[in-house]
Design a protein that fits this description.
- It contains two helices and no strands.
- It is mainly α and 61 residues long.
- The longest helix is centred in the first third of the chain and has 14 residues.
- The N and C termini lie far apart (60 Å).
Length: 61
């Protein structure tokens, strides 16, 4: 399943509920899908942007 997440979730939900196979497991199936989707997410590569706002230095006058 290489679609966007809402389409994958709809497909999983339809598979569980429409086939009359344990409709009480819908939430568990969606939680598993969510965990797998999160684990397969690739971290962004490259240089991380720094915060360029001026920092307040405390204690100086």
């Amino acid at each position: 399943m290489k679609k966007e997440f809402p389409r994958m979730a709809k497909a999983v939900k339809n598979q569980v509920t429409d086939n009359y196979y344990r409709p009480d497991l819908t939430k568990a199936a969606l939680a598993t899908l969510s965990a797998v989707h999160r684990s397969l997410k690739v971290a962004k590569s490259g240089v991380k942007k720094r915060n360029r706002q001026a920092l307040k230095v405390r204690g100086r006058k």
